[in-house]
């Protein structure tokens, strides 16, 4: 893109820069495009009540993004919802994958155990809610000369897909800056109201929760109802979540409460029908029936520091509340599942997507991903690629983890594998690095970056790359019968057994997120201190 638009973004004189920056800073805080500051002893002393908030890491300009890629990513959102609701409903198919992982990955084993326990008793809720996010980067096929850019999927998220609340606001920020001429005249043919797309992520995710709340129905005990946001405590990215809460409150008249993952067992009870009853610590005489538990926590092993955390997770899974996500849906989002789906010539996509053109549009978004087992031909090839520093330089190694900061990149892969017993290698997948074109932008951030270590604020200008996420809302009814011995994930042919299909109640695309990071950084996590929230200028 930089090749086509060498002068983007334009350099600003000091007066222009001051105008842009002061407007960006004030708009952000005025509209809740904000995060809590990183905790440091110095800040704690100044702000014992925790009142401070700062501008979220943002780009000052919208990044250039190919319109064909944006449209392509949006066009497959509903198909991805169908695919992942299908996987989460096909317990037999997932069993083959998860049981293998569970042997070498304690976190996978813990989640599987929760599912098994609830399955043996019978699930009290047949509805499942997914607030998904499918992440992509732009891929240029260098081998085929002048071909169009396309998107390749970085990963698919089925739990705690974040930034939908802030993303709507950064799109609006860039639109606002454009409307007040904070962007110089010379780029008005590139940045204008027709190239900055609207972004419904915040209201759309709230709508998804509202639809699930409505589908749950009223309390059979005449209790007031509520949606629970299951959260980490402390949470710096709290406003991202609050925007969705406030939308539920204002637009849908739905009560929400924030429940720290630590407090599940203290603050909730199951009644005899396994209805989840929440008693707010601030109102000990009042009880609410929980319709939906929205997980913004519980996705990382570091959150399960005691057996009580696992008991809490089991308690929620047993309940009649609709889980967003259920354990099976969380497991459907593992990197291993993404690798199995991407296996060339596999029957898996056709298993879940009956329409061949839908399946092929999904297939075209996959980058090459390999298993690391010692027996399959693909696994043996991948082992050879990953252990040679020359070839490893084109790959990223991923464990079955979420939330950023878990991957091993490029030339670090061989030494990492060397330090790991070979029997544990299959807990990882090897993925080809997507190499999106770099461009320039300016990132405004306050707070400790991974590199700096201490809080400070700055504008950093330089080469950046972008990752586009498309949100999807899917509410489905799980089929009542699950296959027990389904087609194996390796040898199963389509038609060997009909997969149990979910009944889709809601399936819609739900806005987007553009995250932008320095082109020298491998990781992209905004919360983890690597990236920034951006919006696309479609070119
Ligand atoms: P997580 O679930 O922890 O977010 P990801 O698979 O999204 O894991 O990886 C984290 C980051 O690593 C991504 O946001 C992206 O910046 C980078 N990354 C992951 N896979 C690739 C890839 N195939 N090509 C380029 N970058 C990647
Ligand atoms: Mg990611
Ligand atoms: Mg993820």
Notes on the protein architecture:
Helices cover 34% and strands 23% of the residues. It is an alpha+beta fold and 539 residues long. It folds into two domains: 402 residues, no CATH class; 57 residues, 2-Layer Sandwich (Dna Ligase, domain 1), CATH 3.30.1490.50. Helix 1 packs across helix 7 and helix 7 packs across helix 9. The chain contains 18 helices and 21 strands. The strands form five sheets. Strands 3, 5, 6, 17, 18, 19 and 20 form a seven-stranded antiparallel sheet that branches. It is globular. About 4% of the residues have low confidence. Bound molecules: adenosine-5'-diphosphate and magnesium ion (MG) (2 copies). One magnesium ion binds next to strand 6. One magnesium ion (MG) binds next to strand 6.
List keywords for this structure.
2 domains; binds adenosine-5'-diphosphate; single chain; 539 residues; Dna Ligase, domain 1; globular; 18 helices; binds magnesium ion
Helical content, roughly? 25-40%
Distance between the termini: 9 Å
Radius of gyration: 23 Å
Largest sheet: 7 strands, antiparallel
User: What is the average of the pLDDT values?
Assistant: 93
Low-confidence stretches: 448-453, 482-495
Count of DSSP helices? 18
Number of structural units classed as domains: 2
Proportion in β-strands: 15-25%
Shape descriptor? globular
Estimated structural class = alpha+beta
Give the names of the bound compounds.
adenosine-5'-diphosphate, magnesium ion
How many strand segments?
A: 21
Binding site for ATP: 155, 335, 398-407, 409, 431-434, 467, 517, 523
GO molecular function, one term: glutathione synthase activity
Pathway: Sulfur metabolism; glutathione biosynthesis; glutathione from L-cysteine and L-glutamate: step 2/2
Family: Belongs to the eukaryotic GSH synthase family.
